[in-house]
Amino acid sequence: LCYLDCTNAKLINKSAFAECVSMTRYSFEKAEEVGCQAFAGNASLVQIELGKVKKLPQNVFFECAQLRYIVANCLEEVDDEAFGARKSPQIIKNKLWVAAEQELLEYEEFVE
């Protein structure tokens, strides 16, 4: 299993998917809240859809070095340590975050 579709989940608990090293993609279209370290250690994670999540908490993507795309339609706040020691990726139109050594891979429109 490398893709998980949890379309109806509204809450992603702390450390819920931590250390799921083979997962490459998650989809949480109706998610409203995500806990600290929820995806920490997902070494293969490339893409995640976080629906209605407004905040990315501390270490939510710690040690997720392959993460490239975060789709979050309602994102308002990102903890300074959401990505652990990695620098936060650029925000694009509050819908798509792109993380690849600060290189823009795909975009819609930049937010000022």
Automatic annotation (TrEMBL):
This is Leucine rich repeats-containing protein. InterPro entries: LRR_5, LRR_dom_sf. It comes from Trepomonas sp. PC1. It comes from the Eukaryota.
